[in-house]
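Friendly challenge for the regulars: who can give me the structure tokens for this chain first? No prize, just bragging rights.
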Amino acid sequence: MTGAAAALDREPLWGPNGLVPAIVQDAADGRVLMLAWMDAEALAVTLETGVVHFHSRARDRLWRKGETSGHELRLLELALDCDSDAVLLQVDPIGPTCHRETRSCFDPDGAPARQTTQGLGWLETLWSTIAARATERPSGSYTTALLEGGVDAVARKVTEEATEVLIAAKDDAAAERAGTDRAVTRDALAGEAADLVFHALVLLSERNVAPSAVIDVLRGRHGG
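First reply, four minutes later:
Bragging rights claimed.
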């Protein structure tokens, strides 16, 4: 087994030409960006550097995506499909992926080069981390300490963070009324909102309520 494949749970099933198809997906929202091909060298270099490389069939050589345009694909996760004959790469794209300057190779000409979604899909990663802390309870983890404090400890933090969000929002509104630079107050509001979202998710974990239940409620209310 190669060093690259050792980072996976099994060896890719390389085709007769030594290649395997590689599907590239934006980790932020799941948008498929492109399809290319990898050989063992491209997979190894991708895993070693964290920057996606392919095998160029036209030039018969290793190809770093973005080597001329600067529009790299930074690897976040990599997985094989059930038959081990295709690779899925979840990435953080730097600039448009397609040579036509569109975000995806599957977008029509003239489509926006950047995503217009808010990247909420990343919350799945945060939830996975919280769920792992709830199961493993590693020592020294802030999340572990919160969970071990029980519902009162976590709910208290949610209340505190909600108050901080209110204060930050009022500070930003005051800056807006005064016509002053809102960069600091906006950053403060984003930071406090991030704390609130995190602690709300920890509270759901402590109560063994899946975030999907919250999403179901929001879906049901959508359009109301």
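The chain is about 45% helix and 15% strand. Strands lie at 20-26, 32-38, 53-56, 61-64, 73-80, 87-93. Your move, everyone else.
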